[in-house]
Amino acid sequence: MGRFDGRVVIVTGAARGIGFGTANRFAEEGASVAIIDLDEAAAAEAAGKLSLVDGAKSVGVGCDVSNPESVDAAVERVVSELGGLHVLVNNAGITRDNLLFKMTEQDWDMVMGVHLKGAFLMTKAAQKHFVEQRYGKVVNISSTSALGNRGQANYSAAKMGVQGFTRTLGIELGPFGINANAVAPGFIATEMTDATAARLKLDVEEFRKMNADANPVKRVGFPEDIAAAVTFLASDESSYITGQTLYVDGGISLGV
Ligand code: NAP
């Protein structure tokens, strides 16, 4: 018996990285899973690779989470193809890093659009179903960058915004049987952090080692580390926890 037998889960930005790792953990534990990503072909390919249990289904849906029409169509398609909706993981993300004096308005708007407006639009579309059935779980992906990070004024503001959004969801949706929490990853080895290494003109392995050395547990994180926390917060074991942000970061946010 899996923790998510009979549940339908959406993970955004799940064609790869943390999103895919998380989607796969839900699949292994019995859920039917919708992978939402910008590119429908990549989403469908990833959906086909999930380790589903017998009887569970998956779908890959092309959707831009910052676009309201695209979001509404995607959520309705998932509900009709997978037969409902119980868990939403707002994971889709981008970076457009630059020091403040070089950051463009477009860099700001794009990052806010995907992380913050995207989480808002997806949650608004999902909560209709959650409220009706008096059951739902929202897990938002924040970041240790919420605490401040050089070159990431846009991303840091969006990720701290996600935490405020999560607290408010906890207050508003709790009476309807809905829990909302956030996970704030530290350095996780994915294409996003590999791209940061390239931008800093550093070798990927050297960049990972630098980040491993910087935290108390002396290793980088992997998508599986985030998947474990997200599935806990989306499970019925955590039904008395809401509005919280759990840092999953090898202790880097302890500031030692
Ligand atoms: P990733 O490998 O870059 O994956 C992000 C996915 O989101 C990509 O498949 C991307 O699609 C998709 N996406 C981007 N914009 C989208 C949009 N408008 N609509 C739908 N999908 C969209 O990133 P990751 O490292 O797995 O990160 C996942 C989440 O964790 C993000 O929210 C990130 O900010 C957060 N996070 C990551 C780290 C880390 O160290 N990796 C640390 C803290 C927080 P395309 O490829 O087509 O752009």
Automatic annotation (TrEMBL):
InterPro entries: KR_dom, NAD(P)-bd_dom_sf, Sc_DH/Rdtase_CS, SDR_fam
Signal sequence segment: none
KW Ion transport (keyword) present: no
GO molecular function, one term: 3-oxoacyl-[acyl-carrier-protein] reductase (NADPH) activity
Domain Ketoreductase: from-to ranges: 7-186
Principal EC category: oxidoreductase
Enzyme Commission no: 1.1.1.100
Keywords, comma-separated and alphabetical: NADP, Oxidoreductase
SUPFAM superfamilies per UniProt: NAD(P)-binding Rossmann-fold domains
UniProt record, GO biological process: fatty acid elongation
Organism domain of life: Bacteria
Listed NCBIfam families: PRK07231.1 (NF005559), PRK12826.1-2 (NF009466)
Protein family (similarity comment): Belongs to the short-chain dehydrogenases/reductases (SDR) family.
Protein name: 3-oxoacyl-[acyl-carrier protein] reductase
Species: Nocardioides marinus
Native organism taxonomy: Bacteria, Bacillati, Actinomycetota, Actinomycetes, Propionibacteriales
